[in-house]
């Protein structure tokens, strides 16, 4: 399959970082954003949510108001039950999936993920028999140090399930994440300016991602490094052009495993 030359060149030069969205963890049976919010409603129902409230929440969900539903459900459950629910929902086995194995065979300097789960970390342990360095949105100083040292790390952009205070799920969380965590946002912005980002398992509808892409395109005057997004299904010419012109993102259609394997063949070397 076709892999852009610029993507391979930037990977070879150590300036290509993958961003793994919820679709990357679905391969391990974990929920995406919509499935997660549906599960939270069911959890609230098990904890005494009334029929009227359940109906309204499902109506809001159907209209796309996921953040409002998540806000209500978190308050309804209370912090303790909410955190316990997330821990249970995002638990997974230690087996490595083909996608994650292929991801870790490429010499990416880091892996960014919006997922809370530990799939990437467990895959890393299964493959290399050691723990990777893992940072979250609360670890900006450590992130700068790892990035400057060119030392491989995993960044949990929306938080880590084992550190509930870092998890970004509700609209309140997003507000705090964007407006009350300026040093972290600056770090991510700088990475986007100096690296090609390869998005996989995400629809690119995340307001957070689009904000960063818009900012970096503005700051670079449209002359920054190109970004890429891999989609399983065909992206029409209108959206492809919009993503390219608005966010400097080139769309690619293909299977994740086939694409990563093709990258490895073209690169001619794997991570030692």
Ordered list of secondary-structure elements with their pairings:
Layout: H1 5-12, E1 16-20, H2 22-26, H3 33-46, H4 51-62, H5 66-77, H6 79-89, H7 98-104, E2 110-113, H8 119-128, E3 134-136, H9 140-148, E4 153-156, H10 171-179, H11 182-194, E5 196-200, H12 207-219, E6 227-231, H13 237-247, E7 249-253, H14 256-267
Parallel strand pairs: 1-2, 1-5, 2-4, 3-4, 5-6, 6-7
Model description:
By secondary structure, the protein is an alpha/beta fold. The protein has two domains: 5-26 and 96-267, 3-Layer(aba) Sandwich (Rossmann fold), CATH 3.40.50; 33-89, no CATH class. It is 54% helix and 11% strand. The chain has helices spanning 5-12, 22-26, 33-46, 51-62, 66-77, 79-89, 98-104, 119-128, 140-148, 171-179, 182-194, 207-219, 237-247, 256-267; strands at residues 16-20, 110-113, 134-136, 153-156, 196-200, 227-231, 249-253. Helix 5 (66-77) crosses helix 6 (79-89).
């Amino acid at each position: 399959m076709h892999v852009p030359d610029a993507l391979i060149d930037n990977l070879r030069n150590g300036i290509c970082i993958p961003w793994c969205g919820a679709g990357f963890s679905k391969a391990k049976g974990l929920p995406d954003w919509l499935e997660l919010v549906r599960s939270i409603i069911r959890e609230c129902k098990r904890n005494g949510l009334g029929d009227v409230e359940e109906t309204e929440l499902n109506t809001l969900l159907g209209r796309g108001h996921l953040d409002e539903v998540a806000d209500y459900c978190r308050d309804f459950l209370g912090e303790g039950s909410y955190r316990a629910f997330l821990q249970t929902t995002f638990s997974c086995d230690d087996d490595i999936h083909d996608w994650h194995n292929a991801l870790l065979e490429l010499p990416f300097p880091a892996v960014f993920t919006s997922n809370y789960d530990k799939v990437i970390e467990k895959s890393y342990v299964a493959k290399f028999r050691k723990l990777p360095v893992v940072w979250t949105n609360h670890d900006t100083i450590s992130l700068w140090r790892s990035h400057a040292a060119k030392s491989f790390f995993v960044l949990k952009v929306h938080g880590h399930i084992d550190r509930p205070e870092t998890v970004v799920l509700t609209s309140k969380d997003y507000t705090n994440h964007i407006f009350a965590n300026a040093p972290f946002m600056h770090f991510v912005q700088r990475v986007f300016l100096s690296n090609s980002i390869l998005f996989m398992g995400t629809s690119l509808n995340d307001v957070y991602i689009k904000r960063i892409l818009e900012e970096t395109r503005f700051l670079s005057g449209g002359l920054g490094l190109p970004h890429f997004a891999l989609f399983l299904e065909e992206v029409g010419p209108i959206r492809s052009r919009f993503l390219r012109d608005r966010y400097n993102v080139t769309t690619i259609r293909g299977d994740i495993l086939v694409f990563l394997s093709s990258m490895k063949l073209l690169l001619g070397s794997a991570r030692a």
